[in-house]
Amino acid sequence: MQELQSGASRSPVLHMGTFEAELHWREHNLAILPALPDREAEKIVTAMDELLFSFCQPGDLLLTRYAIDPAQRNYTRQLGFDFMSNTVHLQPDEAAIPAPIAAAAGYRQAASPQRTAKEITHPISVFQLLYDHGSMLADQLPLSGTQLSPFAWVPYIKEASQRFGIHSQHPPLEIVRRVNTKRYSAEIKQRIGLENPGIYVTGTDQLETVGRKLLEHGTFMIKDNYGVSGKGNIHIESPNMLARIAGSIRKQEDKGRNVEFVLERYLDKTRDFSCQFYITEQGDIEIISVQWLANSQFAYRESLSPDADFMDQLERYHYFETMEQISRELYQDGYYGHVCIDSMVLQDGTLEPMVEINARQSMSLIKNNIDQYLRQQGLQGNMTNYTVSHDGSLSHEQLLGELQRTNLLFLPETGQGIFPLTSAALSVNHPSQPDGKKHKGRLYLSVVTDQEETKKHLLRRLEQLLTANNFQILN
After folding, report:
1. In Å, how far are 49, 63, 148 from 84, measured between CA atoms?
2. Are residues 59 and 6 located together in one domain of the fold?
3. One domain, residues 310 and 392
4. Domain limits for position 324
């Protein structure tokens, strides 16, 4: 896929990303679903851009919010990943900075009397950080003349690209924003004749009326129009639950917030999977991969490679023809670029070919890139993560050393093992001066083996190593 991004005469590609792009597409003053905030989990997401190293080809640049730990950079270099990256943080040395939704997107984020500053803020996108602080990287990274490949197209890309001479070709942000809404996914399902399209509601009364009708036939989901995976949706299982959620939304509506949700019949599934494809500027579709997904509470947990029987099943159900239909609709509506379609296998064995559209790169696309690297060596891996609580006393360099000492660390000569994919996400919540407290972190990794029992054995040994070093595993 890098050839699609960079063309035949290849310029260096600049890889960057803000992973919860939905926060930057979201309109101001929208009602939200009840949820418990987790500031440490939110900050971990800001450090996930390190995963984009998997896209890098020789000569490319990777610009991350937090500089990759030198030990991790040396490790990936040892594995053959040849790219340039920043050695100082782009993110200033403080907690994730709250900021209004970028005015560059054309949306005004004004604080109403009913909303607190805490409610209306979110971490600044990495592209705004580049725009504001990128000059300090001028001596480190030759940004001028590079071709931008972002995780998602978000505000401040245009401004940052112009300031630093970066080439970025993409659809208008208004189109990107529209095609990533749950409302648009429901419209596309109706257009191409798929079953179970969602119902878009714009008021609490409508939400309750539609919800009660759906409950007559089973449970259903309420999805925020700009919801992020694992957040912004609630499974409604009873009239009492519907009444409670509607009551919370009505209070917000009475204070002037707009209501935008999509209601969908809850589908009893046996498996989540996704398809990644790319739409060229000429409208051609390139199918990249299909990945099985293991989700937890509707949020990403693990990506696995499907077997040949499953791929045959997709062919029998004309699944890829449906993907081509979706790509044509997207292109007709002005979008081109990366797409990830979430899909399901239902309990009765039938397919739900499209749950929703994610018009951006994805975790499964990252996993596919790691697969491509491993495949060149005749190897296979599964991508997963561990969310942990720890005091920061074990540095990333020491963690890699422990993995190597116990023969767990994947190296080209070992043929199997734990392949750590990130460093900053593990330590992002720890202050520069240790406070002796435990904070949340996350380790993304690939388990390199083609044997299921070996995979389980490697993960058990990793869990034992983490526990022995005072890490508490939370997931």
Report:
1. 15, 8, 14
2. yes
3. no
4. 272-363
Q: In the predicted model, what is the mean pLDDT of the chain?
A: 89
Establish if 209 belongs to a structural domain.
Answer: yes
Same domain? For 355 and 397 the reply is: no
153 with 212, same domain: the answer is no
In the chain, the amino acid numbered 245 is I
If one compares 361 and 1, the residue with the highest pLDDT of the two is: 361
Q: How crowded is the C-beta side of 418, counted as CA atoms within 13 Å?
A: 29
More confident residue, 294 or 179: 179
**What residues contact 206, with CB distance under 8 A and at least 6 apart?**
none
- List, for residues 177-225, the tens digit of each pLDDT value: 999 999 999 999 999 999 989 999 999 999 999 999 999 999 999 999 9
> What distance in Å separates the CA atoms of residue 303 and residue 265, rounded to the nearest whole number?
25
Taking alpha carbons only, the member of 360, 343, 246 closest to residue 295 is 343
Q: What is the pLDDT confidence band of residue 229, given thresholds at 50, 70 and 90?
A: low
| 356 and 386 assigned to the same domain | no
348 CB contacts (<8 Å, ≥6 apart)?
none
Distance CA 5, CA 11 (A): 10
Contact indicator for 55, 369 with CB cutoff of 8 Å: yes
Residues 398 and 458 in one domain: yes
How many domains is the chain built from? 4
Domain with residue 401: its CATH number is 3.30.70
Q: With bands split at pLDDT 50, 70 and 90, how would you rate the model's confidence at 230?
A: low
Q: Contact 472/394 with Cβ under 8 angstroms? A: no
Over 259-310, what HEC string results? CCEEEEECCCEEEEEEEEEEECCCCCEEEEEEEEEEEECCEEEEEECCCHHH
Q: Which pair of structure tokens corresponds to residue 224?
A: 């925020």
Token pair, residue 159, equals 């401004």
State yes or no: pLDDT of 71 exceeds 70.
yes
Q: Which two tokens stand for residue 249?
A: 């939304």
- CATH number for 242: 3.30.1490.20
- The mean per-residue pLDDT over the stretch 432-451 comes to 91
Instruction: Out of 97-106, 315-324, 325-334, pick the least confident.
Output: 97-106
Which residues are registered as beta bridge partners of 265?
Answer: 220
CA 326 to chain centre: 21
Domain-embedded: residue 65: yes
Q: What are 268's two structure tokens?
A: 């009893």
